[in-house]
Specification:
Oligomer: single chain
Strand content: under 5%
Largest sheet: none
Order of helices and strands: HHHH
Distance between the termini: 71 Å
Structural class: mainly alpha
Number of helices: 4
Length: 93
């Protein structure tokens, strides 16, 4: 009984996994083929990276704890950040 049930679960998992992989591949292939990668997309990627850096350095508790710990290895923390980013500041009057 257990062997049969185990095989059924394994077959279900394999079917779901392969179905997901085929679907994901077709979605990504369509996006890559039809999506131009221009200056606008590069700029948006750099802005997102800047937001990621801001979150890590300002809001993430683990990163802040690491930065303010005695004997902190700040270079190790900063090495995990993206090398190229862009920060936009919007001032509202």
């Amino acid at each position: 009984m257990m062997i049969t049930l185990g095989k059924r679960h394994l077959n279900l998992s394999r079917t779901a996994g392969y179905g997901t992989l085929r679907t994901y591949d077709s979605i990504i292939a369509g996006r890559i083929k039809d999506t131009p990668y221009d200056e606008t997309r590069i700029e948006w990627k750099q802005i997102r990276r800047g937001r990621y850096i801001e979150f890590n350095l300002v809001y993430d508790r683990c990163t802040k704890f690491g930065l303010f710990s005695p004997d902190a290895r700040i270079d190790s923390i900063l090495m995990s950040l993206p090398s190229c980013c862009k920060v936009e500041i919007h001032v509202h009057n």
